[in-house]
Design a protein that fits this description.
mainly alpha, 6 helices, about 0% strand
Length: about 120
């Protein structure tokens, strides 16, 4: 990741085709010794490519990946309970939210620091 970040920094600085020495200078400025194998891999993969296009393609790939939210919902629903099984959990969450709201109102005893 640090090699890609250094490559991007060089690109943002106006160097459209950073060399291994350019990336080595950036990394050494923050105390990182560059490994030639990894450095050459990054340069070979990105050399001659438009960085904006590479990032746009990466964003497209990331947008199609699941973020994990759906998996937790499916696991919490149980097997075959459907919407009827999820209803009590939804009611519980609403009750907890209401309880938290009323607790926060009680803490300031009806007036706040910045009330007029």
């Amino acid at each position: 990741m640090r090699y890609v970040a250094a490559y991007l920094l060089a690109s943002l600085g106006g160097n459209t085709n950073p060399s291994a020495d350019d990336i080595r200078k950036i990394l050494s400025s923050v105390g990182i010794d560059a490994e030639d194998e990894r450095l050459n891999k990054v340069i070979s993969e990105l050399n001659g490519k438009d960085i904006e296009e590479v990032m746009a393609a990466g964003r497209g790939k990331l947008s199609s990946m699941p973020s994990g939210g759906g998996v937790a919902v499916a696991a919490a629903g149980g097997g075959g309970g459907g919407a009827a099984a999820d209803a009590p959990a939804a009611e519980e969450k609403k009750e907890e939210a209401k309880a938290e709201e009323s607790d926060s109102e009680d803490e300031d005893f009806g007036f706040g620091l910045f009330d007029d």
